Give the backbone structure.
Amino acid sequence: SFTNSLQQQGIAVCVTNPNDVDSVYKSLEQIGDIFGEKTKADELVNSLKARTEAIAAKVSTEKPVLVFVQISKEPLFTIGKSSFVTDLITRAGGSSVTSNIGEAYPKFSKETALALQPEAIILSDSEDNREPNDVFAKSPAVRGGKIFRVNADLISRPGPRMFDALEQLAAALHPEKFSKP
């Protein structure tokens, strides 16, 4: 593997694979330690924690919105329990209707999707994923116009930019809590 090849050349390898917000904090702290930038890493983590707590304060009393995250329209891919996006949805005041699936990014049957009836659909915005799959045509999300696009770069890698996605998701799911005065 690539990692073994690097190690054989005497190159130190650090692999992180965070699957929720808390493990992103830990990864950032670990990387800060490795590069001798503990103070900078701690400052970044503290600022990300403050952003996360500000959202929690606004959405914690709201009823979670049932959300389907569409990673790909055809074939239909979504998120499962082990994806960090599931944690983002929860922290944004939503509840992923696919959070009980073990895989991180499962391919999803249209028959199964039809039964979910999400109240909101989040699209990982890319050229071939601009509209909800046709199976959702009669869902509460489509009927209510609650279709939200999030830049794929923000929700494809667990790192500091995913907190931008968290803020966008919270504002989309609970606009009354985030409206400007």
